[in-house]
Amino acid sequence: MSSFADKEIPGVIALFDVDGTLTPARKEISEKMKNTLAALRKKIVIGFVGGSDLIKQKEQIGEDVLGMFDFCFSENGLTAYKLGQQLASQSFIGYMGEDRYNKLANFILGYLAKLDLPKKRGTFIEFRNGMINVSPIGRNCSHAERDEFEAYDKIHNVRPKMVEALKKEFPDYGLIFSIGGQISFDVMPAGWDKTYCLRHIKNEGFTKIHFFGDKTFEGGNDFEIYTHPDVTGHAVQAPEDTLRILNELFQV
Ligand code: M1P
């Protein structure tokens, strides 16, 4: 018997991006969104697919996040859970190897050392299971400082320029670079974008896969899954849009 035989509408799954879709960027989920997801979960299978790591999703959605969704896909599904049980996956360092990763990290740190910014804080490379996350200002900036950096970056294109430099320096590394948030970009092997999570559900027999995301434009980190031929994509601007579309589709 399927693990999801208790759902009111069989064969349907809804996958959600986190920042800007279930929650405001890097902020906490609302009670209304939590209640809506709980009601939706009775009807269909639900999962999130976030670029961030599980620690951040726990901060934003709740410590009990693994119990709130049927599927939890952190780091695009490179860290994956089904009904709270971890699924097998791959790792960034396993793909890269220590030598190549050393060269990449040294280049990034050298580039940032020469970069003049109004403010620099700490944690410029966050090493995760399925990717690295690179932040020119540093990940442990405050909320106000992250807003300031985002505005500065819109004018000075700090991140796009750095991504171009990395592509030029490492053309043969098979990496992709994705600017998904406010202060950083993600670096991962080609194909390890959000479509990676579909590998974990391909044998579950879903006949309809919905995806909700706010960065669905080309270059955004929801683009590949939003445009995937097996997926029905929904572009949203904010969590309020997600709630509205869920109400239209599923009366929750
Ligand atoms: O989920 C989108 C992005 O969220 C964070 O981005 P930032 O800190 O730049 O706002 C990061 O966790 C990033 O990895 C992720 O893609």
Automatic annotation (TrEMBL):
Mg(2+) binds at D17, D19, D214, Y226. Alpha-D-mannose 1-phosphate binds at R26, R128, R139, R146, S184, D186. Keywords: Cytoplasm, Isomerase, Magnesium, Metal-binding. GO terms for molecular function: metal ion binding; phosphomannomutase activity. Its EC number is 5.4.2.8. The active site is at D17, D19. One of its GO terms (cellular component) is cytosol. Its main location: cytoplasm. Pfam families: PMM. Belongs to the eukaryotic PMM family. This is Phosphomannomutase. It comes from Chytriomyces confervae.
